[in-house]
Write a structure and sequence with these properties.
By secondary structure, this protein is mostly helical. It contains 10 helices and no strands.
Length: 257
Amino acid sequence: MISATNTAWLKPVVDRMNVGIVARQWAGNAAALLLAFAWLRVPDSHAWQFLLSVVSGLAIVAAFLWLHATTFRRLRASVLPIPTPVQLLILMCIIFFWMFLLQPISATRSFEPLLAGYFNSKFSPTMRTFFTFARLVQWQECLLDLLEWLIAGLLLPAAMALVATGKNTRTFRGLSYVYQRWQYWAAVFLFGFAGERLTSALVQWTPGKGLVGETISVAARLALAYTVDILLWCFVLALTAVFLDRGESAEPRPVII
């Protein structure tokens, strides 16, 4: 039986995950995706077209960073007056660092069939019925996905803390509090895998027949998957903000000599 103490963190998370935050993330990320697709179609055969492509690309990136930086600050109970350009620079650096850390994982994915075939060949014929090639590939996928969500889980609180409060003693105290909460890691891994699997299942499901039916089906499935992903993302953001605020407001433990 779950006690009230164990679920005391849930209500403030749901309260902070209000309609405005969800709508902001839903519309803002959708607009960023559509603008990014449109940007890919901008011609660059002339100098003015190339200049337009560069300027519009930078504007889309800046708008995307501003969307998440302002969302981070709106979710926090207390913030410090950090200049907006500094917020965007901090967030951009963390995103680049996240992408850098993902490079070895992405490179490892290309070796999954080779590693699965190698390990499968080392098992006895009896064990191969369980350790099949397909199953070994799937396990590698799960392991690499776990590493990706672990990296994201480590960087998200840091991004939110630095954007909203900058570098100070309270910031590090808040980060430590978040990293020690099992609820945070359960949400990161559970929602990460659930969102990824649900999105994949909805995209691959084709119930519609005919051109019109398939078009409506694709639009509905993409909209549903996108909405679910945004809801899960907003929940993790609200949970991170609540735990950061609790950690920063908690009194430091006295040092016993």
